[in-house]
Amino acid sequence: MRQPDIEIYLKDAERDAVAQWLGEALGPCSEWQQKGQTFKCKAGDVPVTWLPKAVGKWHSLYLESDATPWADDLACARAAHAALGVQIRCAPGTWVEDESEEEADRWIKVDADGETEIVWRTE
Questions:
Q1: DSSP 19
Q2: Cβ-contact 64, 46 below 8 angstroms
Q3: Which of 25, 85, 101, 110 is deepest in the core (most CB within 10 A)?
């Protein structure tokens, strides 16, 4: 089932490299517009939000559309890792407001060693 939006976390990724990758995957990126701590642009028709250091050294990349080549966060994480060569983390499925804290701390790590389910306490 296609997720309504995509959110992944990238370690040590450069915003310009991410914009180049998104430009190739989704269409040309507009200039980044800074709004407080966040940066916004459009890649093709997809609204993009970049939050540097959202969780420690991890940057949040949020694609506010279901019109991407990726059906879910994990598919996007795989593509981001392949293109950028950095570790990516994403939720194992669609986030649900009332899920237990244990479930909320379950993440999938995508890196050179493959995919691993981990516990990541983000608070």
A1: H
A2: yes
A3: 110
